[in-house]
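User: Quick sanity check before I run a bigger batch. Here is a single chain. Can you write out its predicted 3D structure?
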Amino acid sequence: MPNPTAIIAEDEPILRQELREELSTLWPELEVCAEAADGTEALHAIQETSPDIAFLDVEMPGMTGVEVAQAVNGRCHVVFVTAYDKYAVAAFEQQAADYILKPYSRERLAASVKRLRERLQGVPAKLDGILEALAKHAPEQTSYLRWITASHGQKVRFVTVDKVCYFQADNKYTMVMTADSELLIRRPIKELHDSLDPQTFWQIHRSTIVNVNEIADVTRDMHGHLRVQLKSRKESLTVSEPYNHLFRQM
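Assistant: Done. Predicted structure follows.
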């Protein structure tokens, strides 16, 4: 019996490589016959290689993973890869397809591999019910940033934004400050601000955006300026006057 084949469709190169490496460890017999960086590439790869399994990132440029799954419905087994719990719940309840949440968990991926091995004994399920459910729960085009890739010396790290204590402007770049590291991203803070959830990330200075869940308390210094004390870092952050109103409710 030939080895099972799969494609991986994920627009983040680091996450794509990470998934491939984890699969090679958990399922050595699985042959990844193609990779895709967007939905259009994924559809072409499925048409050209006819894989047994397609790992489809739900949020991709060109075509979403849901749209790709609609186009190839019933032709291969589908695993949705997503950072959105609402997608995962719908996929899990329908039982027609599997899901993996980002960032990847080896335990969750191992469970998915186990189910896929069993499902390969039968024909791929029709996904009409799940696709309808996923389409209803599709995130708005204004979905907020959920993770970033940042430089740390010569390495590149993957960080979910909930782990970020604050962002600090550094010329044309931005420092990403977590509880235990200081990372650099090649993105100006003004552009970053527009992609963050305003309910979680507040701009408190033209050069600083703070995660409100990381605020321990707010005090006034001897000059009357507000300063934010953090839960996970020792330094305090200055609040410039135009942003004082954010803390009136605190």
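The longest strand covers residues 164-170.

User: Great, the batch can go ahead then.
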